[in-house]
Amino acid sequence: MHEHEEEVYYHDHGDGHVHSHPVEPGHPHAHGHVHTQTKAVINRLSRAVGHLESVKRMVEDGRDCTEVLVQLAAVRSALSSTARVILKDHLEHCVGGGDSADLQALNEAIDKFMG
């Protein structure tokens, strides 16, 4: 990032719109640490982006709606599983500090909840 560029983070308030805000010093999103799963997450996201691009081409080519919906469900599933990896990594590296049995129980609950 260049000196004059402002770092921003993006989030969804649940209203369907993504909002961006500058990262302020000390803000919780301003941390720059690397997690153990970063490479795996980047690979998963790259595959999801490629898959979504192919779904876009399906729509452009006029493919059957049911085929498009099946592929969109696959993209959504890939994103959910990526989110699960990020959440678990966050729990282990940012929240952590707790009993490893408690952490394992929480991870199992997340798996059950996110299916």
What can you see in these coordinates?
With 115 residues, this protein is mainly alpha-helical. The protein is built from three helices and two strands, in the order E-E-H-H-H. The protein has helices spanning 38-60, 65-95, 100-114, and strands at 8-12, 18-22. A hairpin with a 5-residue loop joins strand 1 (8-12) and strand 2 (18-22). Helix 2 runs antiparallel to helix 3 (100-114). The longest helix is centred in the last third of the chain and has 31 residues, at 65-95. The protein is elongated, with a radius of gyration of 18 Å.
Q: How would you describe this structure in keywords?
A:
115 residues, mainly alpha, two-stranded antiparallel sheet, 3 helices, 9% strand, elongated, disordered N terminus
Summarize the structure.
With 115 residues, this protein is mainly alpha-helical. The protein contains 3 helices and 2 strands. The chain has a two-stranded antiparallel sheet.
